[in-house]
Amino acid sequence: MNRGPERRAAVLIDYADGVLTLTKNNPDTGYGMTCAVLDAMEDVLLHAGDREDLRAVVIDAGGDGFHEAAVMVFELKPDYHDMDREDAREIVRRGQSLGELISSLPVPVIGLAAAGARGGGLEMMTRVDMLYCTDAALFCLPEVQLGFYPGWGGLQHGARMMQWRRAQEFILLGEEIDGREAERAGLVTRSFGSVEDMRARAAAVCKRLQYCSPHAVARVKAELRRVWREAVEVGEGRDYESHAEVMETRDFVKAMDALQKGRAWNYLKRVDEPPLATGRAFPQLEGVTAGAAPVE
């Protein structure tokens, strides 16, 4: 199902070819994390996983593609001088609620930060699965300068992604780094020389996900989340059940049948197609007969 853009509050929503794209559309606040943006994104993502043909979610920002900080801090009360401990807890709750929703989706979430991200905008990007930017992008967690605490994920997630010594300097000083440095430090997945190259990579990732078993992707993503939180022995013990549950979906039968015919199974279109470009082709296994493509 393909649908054109539709507007909900401060977010533009588009759904096409199994990809749900959310684009912040609030230039009056610099595409920051306002209450309206938080509400709209949460409302959409809460039910996004119900789509059987969903393969990826893309989170973008309008304008030049910069994700501004948590503007919602100043929307809680008319005068920020009156903010108290309960307001502080509410700020963290709102951000962590959306962050957990993003990271717990059963499909990969791709963040696009062409011009970079700051504060709460960057913290929300630490919750996506892949984050792409341009070399000229700028990233910063200025909370320590402003008397705040990076409680939306900048500390707990950002520090785990980055090299430890670099994370200490970056978070404790609130300094800016560009896209290339962010890639070297592990804060972003990849940085590109142009916006066009960045978007081309995101499109290629979404296309490739059509050829990945949605059941396998969902299970692997869930286990990747646990890698951060559990001892390796616990994860290895769960691998037995995870592998069995993924194979029980029989997705591997479709993929192997297509492979033995020199083709690749497209899980979105439910057909076999010419194989994806690869540097080394899969071998054709002797004694293995390809079955007919399953009818669904």
UniProtKB/TrEMBL annotation:
Pfam assignment, any one: ECH_1
Protein name: Enoyl-CoA hydratase
SUPFAM superfamilies: ClpP/crotonase (SSF52096)
Lineage, highest ranks first: Bacteria, Pseudomonadati, Pseudomonadota, Alphaproteobacteria, Sphingomonadales
Alphabetized CDD domains for the sequence: crotonase-like (cd06558)
GO biological process, one term: fatty acid beta-oxidation
Source organism: Sphingobium indicum F2
InterPro entries reported for this sequence: ClpP/crotonase-like_dom_sf (IPR029045), Enoyl-CoA_hydra/iso (IPR001753)
Molecular function as annotated in GO: catalytic activity
